[in-house]
Amino acid sequence: MLKQTFLAATAIAGLLAAAPPAVGQEYQQPTAQLRTAETITVRPSAQVRRFYMPRQEVREVRGQYLMEDGTTAAVDARQRSLIVDFDNRTTVLEPVGAYIFSSDNDDMTLVYTKDALGDDMIVLNYIPQRNLAMGEAGRIRLSSR
């Protein structure tokens, strides 16, 4: 019985402490400081893990590709990498998946496929040189014809 009375008294004291002040009493701010959440942006510093692709498969991608906007993408192979001459720049692309290539800074990716007729086709997803110069990140996706 004594234990129940003590618990009841403790509960009443807690309610009184949390209740708003009575008329004429001064309200005191809680002393605990509020903590705000910080936003942290993390960018991995390690390069993308390279995907192994045999040299003969990399060489299959070589060629001149007429893109849907009328420009030409020249693709050459060096060892297990691609050299893409497009958008007034030369970019080295490394394999990151089966017939998927990406630049180190991820401003250009290339996907190689064969269409239903067996013709070679690439899809370039890139940030145009003019956007890089202005600090914009708008990407363009182009397919070869």
Description:
By secondary structure, this protein is of the alpha+beta class. 20% of the residues lie in helices and 32% in strands. The chain is built from three helices and eight strands; from the N terminus they run H-H-E-E-E-E-E-E-E-H-E. It has an eight-stranded antiparallel beta sheet with strand order 1-2-3-4-5-6-7-8. It is elongated and about 90 Å long. The mean pLDDT is 76.
How would you sum up this structure in a few lines?
The chain has 145 residues and is of the alpha+beta class. The chain is 20% helix and 32% strand.
What count of helical segments does DSSP give?
3
Instruction: Supply Rg.
Output: 32 Å
Main sheet record: 8 strands, antiparallel
Task: Report the average pLDDT across residues.
Answer: 76
What topology does this entry show?
Elements: H1 2-18, H2 55-60, E1 63-66, E2 72-78, E3 81-86, E4 89-97, E5 100-102, E6 108-114, E7 120-126, H3 129-134, E8 140-143
Antiparallel strand pairs: 1-2, 2-3, 3-4, 4-5, 5-6, 6-7, 7-8
Keywords:
single chain; 145 residues
